[in-house]
Amino acid sequence: EAELREALEFLTRVNRLFGGVSNVLDLFKVWSRSWTRGQRVTVLDVGSGAGDIAAALASWGRSRGFDLRVTGIDAAAGAAASGDPAVELVRADLFDFARSARRFDYVISSMTLHHIPEERQAEALLACDRLARRGVAVVDLERSLPAYWSVKLLTWLFGGRVTRCDGPLSVRKGFREEELAALARRARLGYLEVRRRPFFRLS
Fold first, then answer.
1. Which of 40, 78, 92, 116 could form a disulfide with 67 if both were Cys (CB 3.0 to 4.6 A apart)?
2. pTM for this one?
3. Pairwise CA distance, residues 54 & 59, whole Å
């Protein structure tokens, strides 16, 4: 429990400093051009961890006059509460959740896809598509030597036992642009488009 809490706190700091939050907000700045002031918008955050990105989204929505309601699902959800009444954290599995009757305007996933077994990654994209009415965004790590050594140094200097192992391993399990594009084709989701993001990330 203590190690999980420490790992989630580290990831929250990394998300704030190295694009985890800003990459997602950039996507919503584009999507929100079609919204009206006061409109309620529902979002599902897959692999929400401590709920920091979910809380940042809800706060960003309020600051712009939108009523953003964010549900975060994670195997470890609830380990840290967001403290935001517009954020609901649920301990749930994506594939089980996709079979429920719930639907959301938008579904996002940040740094989660690489944790899913390779043979089920296309199925995970389809599950996100099934849960979304208007849009899907998946952000994950770009696999490269600069990314690997940057993450290894960062986790060695500031991380705990779990993140020192998980951080570099996550880069090794990350993606190249052509791999994400092939994954979208395999899922037959032609609207998904791969883009480079700052800090060794792809969406």
1. 40
2. 0.91
3. 9
Query: Which is nearest to 186 in space by CA: 130, 136, 121?
Result: 121
Contact call for residues 107 and 71 (beta carbons, < 8 A):
no
Please list the rounded mean pLDDT of every run of 10 residues in the chain (203 residues).
Answer: 84 83 92 94 94 93 95 74 82 93 96 95 97 96 95 92 93 96 96 93 94
Query: Count of CB atoms within 10 A of residue 3's CB?
Result: 11
143 DSSP assignment: P
| Alpha carbons 159 and 170: distance in angstroms, whole number | 14
Beta pairing partners, 91: 74
| Among 21, 67, 29, residue whose Cα is nearest residue 45 | 21
What is the rounded distance in angstroms from the CA atom of residue 89 to the CA atom of residue 80?
9
Structural contact between residues 32 and 65, judged by C-beta atoms closer than 8 angstroms: no
